[in-house]
Write a structure and sequence with these properties.
Number of domains: 2
Helix content: 40-55%
Number of strands: 7
CATH superfamily of the largest domain: Aldolase class I
Strand content: 5-15%
CATH class of the largest domain: Alpha Beta
Number of helices: 12
CATH topology of the largest domain: TIM Barrel
Strand order of the largest sheet: 1-2-3-4-5
Oligomer: single chain
Distance between the termini: 76 Å
Order of helices and strands: HEHHEHEHEHEHHEHEHHH
Mean pLDDT: 92
Structural class: alpha/beta
Largest sheet: 5 strands, parallel
Low-confidence stretches: none
């Protein structure tokens, strides 16, 4: 929230800027060294200056979730009067839950027609849920990052918010869902961080199944253990063989490989597969399962040709 930053944006040939102002009394005192009136005056001056330079303006209300709500309403009105087109409600310290996020945005929406953006942090693992609740409460924009990168525990992940809006509410965002995994890989590489295998939406194991009960159900009807269609994201199910596998997974695999086994052989192969998985602490590769099949066939003197 400085004129010098506006000048830098103009030099960079930008058309829109986001300028932030502390919204809570704690941050106003510590960062501005003043009171609420000083914060309001700074918004009037800097937003007004940006508009004079023909820039579109979004005002970020830092620490909005700890601000006095009546002051926050005044701050938003001041930003609008100065020419801003959007105000960002930042849960900077991650103090909101979905109920309070919904209530806060709902109250603010009732007082303004300005675009309202919600910016959630994930310290309590609630960034996606809070963002979803804020949108239900009337937020028009969501502040997100790819794979949730951000300060401390990060921010609301782009992929989670986007797919949740589509899956739960049928809301279209314009995001091309099958590209989310590719974008996540590019960003993770640039940030030199790994994507956890169980990361929602873009993790490698999101559509991977091993449990015997789950696999048996999925082979009969995908809807038994999966509500999110992998095809929506350009992906597909993957069944892995491991210590939790059941007979359905074994018989399905050998049917896919066009290798014949009978019920007794399937049970023996499953027993060996589980033992191998425990000993090696991980899934059993297909080639290892086939090697076990050959050994079982030889031992039973069964013609497996």
């Amino acid at each position: 929230m400085r004129e010098a930053d506006i000048d830098a944006a103009i030099e960079a040939k930008l058309s829109m800027v986001n300028v932030s102002i502390p919204a809570s009394d704690v941050q106003i005192a510590a960062k501005l060294g003043g009171d609420r009136e000083l914060a309001l005056e700074q918004v009037k001056r800097v937003v007004g200056y940006a508009r004079e330079q023909e820039l579109e303006v979004a005002v970020g209300g830092e620490d909005s979730s700890r601000a006095d709500v009546n002051f926050l309403i005044t701050l938003i009105a001041t930003a609008k009067a100065a020419g801003a087109r959007r105000f960002r409600i930042a849960d900077t310290l991650s103090v909101l839950d979905p109920d309070s996020a919904f209530a806060l945005i709902g109250r603010l929406r009732a007082t303004t027609d300005l675009d309202l953006e919600f910016h959630g942090h994930d310290d309590l693992g609630l960034a996606t849920a809070n963002t979803r609740a804020a949108i239900k409460g009337g937020a028009s924009h969501a502040s997100v990052t790819v794979i949730g990168l951000g300060e401390r525990a990060g921010n609301a992940p782009l992929e989670e918010v986007t797919v949740a809006l589509k899956q739960l509410y049928g809301r279209e965002t314009g995001i091309v869902l099958p590209e989310l995994e590719k974008v996540a890989v590019v960003v993770a590489a640039a940030a030199t961080c790994a994507i956890p295998l169980n990361k929602a939406i873009v993790g490698g194991h999101v559509f991977t199944h091993e449990s015997g009960i789950h696999v048996d159900g999925l082979l009969k009807d995908q809807r038994t253990y999966q509500s999110l269609d992998p095809q929506l994201l350009g992906r597909s199910n993957r069944i892995v063989i491991g210590k939790h596998s059941g007979l359905s997974a074994i018989t399905s695999l050998f049917k896919e490989l066009q290798l014949a086994i009978n019920a007794e052989e399937a049970r023996r192969i499953l027993s060996r597969v589980r033992q191998h998985a425990v000993e090696h602490k991980g899934p059993v590769p297909r080639e290892t399962v086939v090697a076990i099949w050959r050994d079982v066939c030889e031992r039973s003197l069964t013609d497996c040709a």
